[in-house]
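User: I'll paste a sequence; please echo it back and then give the predicted structure.

Assistant: Echoing your sequence first, then the prediction.
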Amino acid sequence: MTELAGKTAVVTGGAKGIGAATVALFGKHGARAVSLDISDGIDVTDESAVKAAFERIGEIDILVNNAGRAIRKPAVELQKAEWDAVLDLNLTATFLCSRLAHPYMKKRGGGAIVNLASIMGFSGGIFPNVSYQASKGGVVNLTRALALEWAADNIRVNAVAPTFVRTDLTIPIFSNPEVLKIVMGHTPLGRFPEVEEIAAAILYLCSPSARCITGITLPVDSGYLAR
């Protein structure tokens, strides 16, 4: 029920971290997995670049909107350009990629979209990170809105909300023992998920096993949101 043979999956930010783990796992389950990453010259905030990339790919059954960034600063120090950079990638690009993928999925008789939200989409967070928190809250509700709008086209739209995961984005957290201790104090299970575990949740939501699931955001959070 998790086989994706014959499916084409596009993963934004697929060159490293959660994205790379997702590309690898999808490939193991039979999908043609394609990464769109800034390291390969694809800026997913550029609508024309994404459109051209999708045309080259040709068929899209699955889209994983994984690309993201964070700028951790107190709100009074955050510049508008920094706010815009986070919202443009985390939220607006998620919308643009989904909208551009829609006709490909509709032509194929349906599809699955999984957005990368965050526990910060449900929480005010532990540290100042206002643009990230706002963007991920937007992803949660964008997921619901698109799920309702595109259900008639048999396109399921869900999200995954990870807790802190060891990636380039969280180097400032995992490299500081005092900060890490604070985070662990908000982690009831006492352990963090690996990127492969986030990829497994994404795979599930894209697979036939989740054919009746749409509009939800699945936390993979080691108990963070239970507090």
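The beta strands are 8-12, 32-36, 62-65, 111-116, 155-162, 217-220. The mean pLDDT is 97.
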